[in-house]
Amino acid sequence: MGKTMLNHLVKKGKNLLELNKIYPIQEINGVSITSVIYQIDDFVQTKNSDGTTYANRLHLEALTDGEITIVLGKGYLAEKDDQWTNALSHTDRWSGGDGIFTFNLTDGNDAFDLSDPVTSLFVFGDTIIGRFDRITRQRLSPFVMTNNSMAIQSKDDGQIDFLINPQKNGNVAGFYKSAQKYDIAGTVSMNLIKYDDSLENEGWLSGFDPEVCEVIFDLATNRFVSHINIKNYYSKNHSVLSTRGIRKFRLLSSDDSSTWDDLGEFIALRNIDGTSSTEIKLQKSFRFLKFSINPIPGIGNYGDEAKEGLYGLKKVEFFNHQNQYLDVEAKASSTLLQEPAKSWLWLQDGVVINNYLYFFPLTVESDTSQPEGLQFKVTGVNQIKVPIQNEFPATKLQTQKRTPFFFKHALGEVTMGGAIMNHPEDGYVYVYGYITNYGLRQMIVSRVLPDEFELFDSYEFYDGVGYGSDLRKAKPLLEHISCEFSVSKILKGRNAGKYICVYTYDVSSPYVAFSIGDSPEGPFTKPQMIYKCPEKEIFGKTTYTYNAKAHPHLSKSTSILVTYNTNTYSLDHNMEVADIYNPRFIRLNEV
């Protein structure tokens, strides 16, 4: 039997009962009830496999006046955790942020039910640095907003210290920012390995009359390459500009970028209308491949009346038979146009592996065509690697790498890195992402061995049957997830051995939801709303909540610590009420 929760008086006929929270209901006893409709607000709910129905609203019809008893069933009951929420509310300097990812810096174990205290890292997204009036709760000008910040919780006394990153000139910066080598726009060589055809791509153009004209491709590790496919330079508006395309060139391969093997001389087809390509069979293993282009007009390119002396390419693809390599970088000896893209990073989830902290941040650029609060566009996903020294992230020693984990295909826009789970039971790290299609986000999953975490062509993607190398075949596992979420293995309690995914239903709704899976790739139960965030009703106007997730190493399996973010689309509203922009904590308690 369940636990008696609530007693209510009902009248004969139709009754509407508004409950004070979302309850997992097993049964309703008392006077005879002819019908019951269970709802979470306006969403009708049905019974799950445990015989439980979640609801905060009941429409029922009673045969007589009398009393009913609501009996709690198997499931979770969400409760506010004001102690944690207050601990992350800060008034001086650091005064608000979102994101909130947590990591165990002592030994990297992000599992539930840790027995000993550990040093915990909190990483925040966009952060407000400044003061606010403690009585009126209004923010005071001026203030600074950085794209990320951190806090450290001591394993000795539990004290939380908020960290900002002051600069020599007096400004404040985030600890993690776009690496200069990737924060570029123009006719740059990295365009050659952008394999998303849905995005406009200028390709690569050399500078005028280069003395040396080379492009070197790096496959991250030694790979067997059966063939390459070259798409030569062209302009969709001016076919005459296809004369900039390379013509005669040599290919050289290397394992170390120092000693090169000459593979011979080749000719690339002219690409007048964007439909032509050149396939070159290689059947060779290497890490680096160099295009050495003869910088003589009419020989190294297709010549032109203007005698520009420019040499260009549109795209170069690397294959192991049917499998395309995507973990490729390119560097050119000469570039015509190169300028800062002025991008920034929004951190996604991370993981600790071998005393390094890894993230998969989104790269983001301004887009003023969007409404206030949404004037941005995502342009890619990078990987950041940070050494952990003395249980502290050595952010000044971080390195960064471009990933192929953001692109569009027939099913929608793919983004990887929204959640990560280290899973020592089978030796894999699971990196989750989502496909976005008309605003709906569906979860997908990949896995990789820890020692190959930086080698993106070693990742495998679940296609509904097994794991394969093609990200385009990743099968959606769960609908209505948020951009940031969590997947964690439950170690104790009723769901021991299963996996819980925690997220905000449809990204920015007021509902925290969860699903239970039988394995890292599911199958997962349908989304279950478990908590209604009250901030929209409290603060009104343009307030919204988003990106809920669990924090396993700070939790018990039967009492899961969950955060969600609170924000407003209006800067003026944020200035009026400083309490809006702070993470909130709740607990999912097993009942």
Number of strands: 46
CATH class of the largest domain: Mainly Beta
- Structural category is mainly beta
**The CATH topology of the largest domain, please?**
Tachylectin-2, Chain A
- What proportion of the residues is helical, as a percent range? under 10%
CATH architecture heading of the largest domain: 5 Propeller
Walkthrough of the structure:
This protein has three domains: 3-74; 79-179 and 341-590, Tachylectin-2, Chain A (5 Propeller); 184-340, Sandwich (Jelly Rolls), CATH 2.60.120.260. It is elongated and about 95 Å long. By secondary structure, the chain is mainly beta. A hairpin with a 6-residue loop joins strand 11 (127-132) and strand 12 (139-146). The protein contains three helices and 46 strands. Helices cover 3% and strands 50% of the residues. The longest helix has 6 residues, at 82-87. The strands form ten sheets. Strands 18, 19, 20, 21, 22, 23, 24 and 25 form an eight-stranded antiparallel β-sheet that branches. Strands 33, 34, 35, 36, 37, 38 and 39 form a seven-stranded antiparallel β-sheet that branches.
